[in-house]
Amino acid sequence: MHVYLNMEKTENIEKVILQSVRRDRNQQVLYGFLFLFLSGMLFFRWSENLPQEMPQTNIFLKVIAILLFGFTTYLFYNASRLINAANHKVAYLLKNDPEKIVWVYTYRVVPMPFGIKFTNMVTVFFRFLDGDGDEVRVKDSEHDKLLEELKNKLPHACFGFNNEKEQLFRVNPAMLIKDIDDDKNRRKS
Q1: Cα–Cα distance between 49 and 43 in angstroms, integer?
Q2: 3-state helix, strand, coil in the chain (%, to 5)
Q3: What CA–CA distance (Å, rounded) separates 86 from 93?
Q4: What is the pLDDT of residues 104-156, one digit of tens each?
Q5: What is the DSSP string of 49-108?
Q6: Cβ neighbours of residue 32 closer than 8 Å, sequence gap 6 or more
Q7: What is the spatial distance between Cα 34 and Cα 72, in angstroms, rounded to a whole number?
Q8: pTM value?
Q9: Model pLDDT, residue 3
Q10: Band of the pLDDT at 46, cuts 50, 70, 90?
Q11: Cβ atoms within 10 Å of 121's Cβ, excluding its own
């Protein structure tokens, strides 16, 4: 089964996915440097300036600094896996083997601390034939157009979330693949 698309639409899907992966990678690097700075300040500077009568606080601050450093290591590790955004599993499968993507659904979270909207991102979840999955966060303004283009590129895949699809995916991801020929015949009649 091969799907032939307008090349411009395919490039637009890849562009949006790659931009999203790069944005996530850059955020992880930025937060990593911030947490690295904070953990260094906690460990070497602030904990050493405490009075000698407070050894428990000194130990507590050093433990927090070590935990922050561990989290920083995790962020840098994740960011290093995304150095080449084209190697991201979703981008790779969309370009080389789109038949392995069987289910796509979205989840929108709008964080509004103190009633102020900070970001407007939508998470697009991709589930694969091998039972694995991945997600990409895209801007809300790109979300609808991306989904329409994905529906054209992945006519065999299911779109949208419900409990039935989740159960089918857990049992056998191949059960989510639509029969495109049957679907075309139903539309004609």
Answers
A1: 10
A2: 65, 15, 25
A3: 10
A4: 999 887 777 777 777 778 899 999 999 999 888 888 888 888 999 999 999 99
A5: TS-TT-HHHHHHHHHHHHHHHHHHHHHHHHHHHTSSGGGSHHHHHHHH-GGGEEEEEEEE
A6: 72, 75, 76, 79
A7: 9
A8: 0.69
A9: 36
A10: low
A11: 19
Inform me whether the pLDDT recorded for 79 exceeds 90.
no
Element (H, E) at 128: strand 121-128
Q: Is the dihedral of CA 132, 137, 140, 145 positive or negative?
A: negative
Q: What one-letter code names the amino acid at 47?
A: S
Residue type, 31: Y
Q: What is residue 105's predicted lDDT score, i.e. its pLDDT?
A: 94
Sheet of 121-128: strands edge to edge? 133-139, 121-128, 101-109, 158-159
User: Which residues, in sequence order, are CB contacts of 187 under 8 Å at separation 6+?
Assistant: none
Please compute the mean of the pLDDT values over residues 160-169 and round it to a whole number.
92
The token pair at 140 is: 């809300």
Tokens of 106: 């979205």
Could you please report the per-residue DSSP string of 133-144? EEEEEEEHHHHH
Residue 125's DSSP bridge partners are 105, 135
